[in-house]
Amino acid sequence: VKGLTGNIFSLVSGSRSSKTFKPKKNIPEGSHQYELLKHAEATLGSGNLRQAVMLPEGEDLNEWIAVNTVDFFNQINMLYGTITEFCTEASCPVMSAGPRYEYHWADGTNIKKPIKCSAPKYIDYLMTWVQDQLDDETLFPSKIGVPFPKNFMSVAKTILKRLFRVYAHIYHQHFDSVMRLQEEAHLNTSFKHFIFFVQEFNLIDRRELAPLQELIEKLGSKDR
Prior knowledge:
Layout: H1 2-12, H2 32-45, H3 49-52, H4 61-81, E1 95-96, E2 102-103, H5 119-135, H6 152-180, H7 184-200, H8 213-221
Helix pairs in contact: 1-7, 2-4, 4-6, 4-7, 5-6, 6-7
């Protein structure tokens, strides 16, 4: 895993591919959150993902979750960006993760009643919605001393739950394209990091993870 975890960051930072679905969300250099991100990258490089996701000693849980949520958004943004040409209205008329799981979009504000839409449309809605949350300084404060809101944890859980659906769609509907692009190592490492993180802090309900349950068990069993 050691080589792969190093690569995911070079890939995310754009040295290998600058193709992202949405603009990358940057954490301001020189900020405490930037230092936390650098700490996360360094511990990931050690190859021990279980250890890498743990809350660093003396750090604020909300801030750690915020930094990692931004990072996962950037990773998924990049991974989906590599396969957008294969995820079309024609190839993916519904947003699904295999035959048993279909997702309908609602954000509670602009679209209150869930609507059935194609996967590219759904993912566009989803990533735009996540971007708006990450850009909201009242939800994701980037300045030192600005407190996180009381509802931060529930917002972060919703973001991560929805980002999981993009992984699930890629694995179920586009894994052959991922293999052809030789991106499977990056996808697997990114997803494993994501799963270990949400498991560490109990951020996604087990029922939501059902579409990739077998894969999750397989990834986890290698680390026991």
